Amino acid sequence: MDRFTDRVAVVTGAAQGIGAATAERLAGEGAAVAVVDLSAERAQPVVERIVAAGGTATAVGCDVTDPAAVDAMVDQVVAAHGRLDILVNNAGITRDNLLFKMPVEDWNAVLTTNLSSMFHCCRSAQRHMVPARYGKIVNLSSRSALGNRGQANYAAAKAGVQGLTATLAIELGPYDINVNAVAPGFVATAMTTAVADRIGVDPAEHRRQVAEQTPLRRVGQPAEIAAVIAFLASDDASYVSGQTLYVNGGAR
Length: 252
Prior knowledge:
Layout: E1 8-11, H1 17-28, E2 32-37, H2 40-52, E3 56-61, H3 67-81, E4 86-89, H4 104-132, E5 135-140, H5 152-172, E6 177-184, H6 190-198, H7 203-212, H8 222-233, E7 244-247
Helix pairs in contact: 1-2, 1-8, 3-4, 4-5
């Protein structure tokens, strides 16, 4: 498929995990992809894989919690390619702890990185999408938005993502800009491995325990989340907007 021929995409937090898989999926279907992470060096290996596979990508360093840096990043992409069609807001962190032990710094860090950064990126991207009367924005939420012990900060941020998504769909819809969110369940990534390490459980055993509680009896893979993001970023989803799609193997 070449659903994204002549399209330009920005994927944040794209040096690993779901972000990297998404960047590779979009590029594999023809998009020119800006692989954005804290530094261009972190993103470069993903770019090299994309280019080796025949795709087009550039590594861009950006602290997405900094509004000025986000504006500069978006302007850089538009200057290089002449347009911006797709924005995937994937950058995120975890700082898990129970409420009574959670430092305010960890609360603020997660809300700033996982929610405020999306506001900055969406606000900057719409400056180019609105005049073009075209755009696809996909935000990463999480099943944790429904509540998850030890993740008050992360759950609050990911629930906020869903509210932001629904509101931007209303505001940007008249300009033919679709805004949706994807809420993954447990996905085998470096982030979930780090969670297992932090709670003192072998990562493979942690995945096995999660799989036992999942109707499909396995955990998700980054490429499976990327496939859903690609659908929402494509014209196949032209009448889908303001939605949060849970991708969690049937878990309730």
